[in-house]
Amino acid sequence: MIENPFNIARGKPLIIGSGLIALDIVINGDPRQPPRLWVGGTCGNVLTILSYLKWQAYPVSRLNGDAASKHVMRDMARWGICLDFARSQPRVDTPIVVQRISQNSTGESSHKFLWNCPHCGSDLPGYKPVVASSAQEIAERIGKPKVFFFDRVSRGTLLLAKASAKQGALITFEPSGVGDPNLFREALSITHILKYSHERKRQMSDFGSVDGPLLEIETLGREGLRYRRRLPSCNTSVWQQLSAYPVTQVKDVVGSGDWCTAGIIHQLGQKGLEGFQEITTAQLHDALRFGQAMAAWNCRFEGARGGMYGVNKKTFKSEILQIISGNDCKLVAPDTPSKKVKNVFRRICPGCRDKTKATSSVVG
Fold it and tell me: 14-349, superfamily in CATH?
């Protein structure tokens, strides 16, 4: 095991990310607990976690100043994220994802994602990629990132990825789906680390053998993960598997994959592509285990990043090290005061606002 997995390079490494950056609204069955409003989405979570680990994180998105975006930007600012590229043109409504957490009769937690407003029933805003013209302008200003991360493919995103690659960045892709097959194939060809869930395996297989990724990771849920690498320092095409860490007091598994990704990037990406190509087999193993420990820790909290709000940084680091060493620990997240769910959506949901305006005009 590495001596201190939280070490950070001098000057703080820079990561640029483009993809789903959303407002997560986390609701559980406890009427005393209000919805939690946090920045979410795969890209949003990965960048926020890395900023928490002392990276310089720059999201590229199209936040437009609506009520949801204000919550997103306030939360990102709280964790030290740089917002220079978060409001690229043309701006659009901020994506909103509702996560409802419940427990069955045996006390086991489950979750369900909602894509419409639980108050008025209207569709909530979805993801819209950065446009190519804005991406081109941003590409000329991004400096020298050590990592570029993306979870969705578009022409604008690929422009940013290629510009980052020219600066020596490690290109990390965690696809949420295929979308345009031609753009997806192009994305795979410039990717250095490809990570996807077992549910996406069939989609990956449809593209046959891909020469681009130097490291390919398939997550297997409770079974852990498997990986294969094509690195000069430890080259093999044989799949190898790592079991997951045992988890006690599982409250919610959402976001654990994002914590795993962030942990892997933290270990492997601090020196960009050049440093990544020089890692040893032992360093790769330690990086993957660090990511898995972060994923296991996250399962103890509700929401994709609930632990960041529930414990302080010292406790977080201590508990991750305990997981890695095999000494699991128990933890209970703190309670929060009561508030009605519908009042949150009246402020956040565009459909609720439109219906309120319509009602006001009729009354007037």
Answer: Ribokinase (3.40.1190.20)
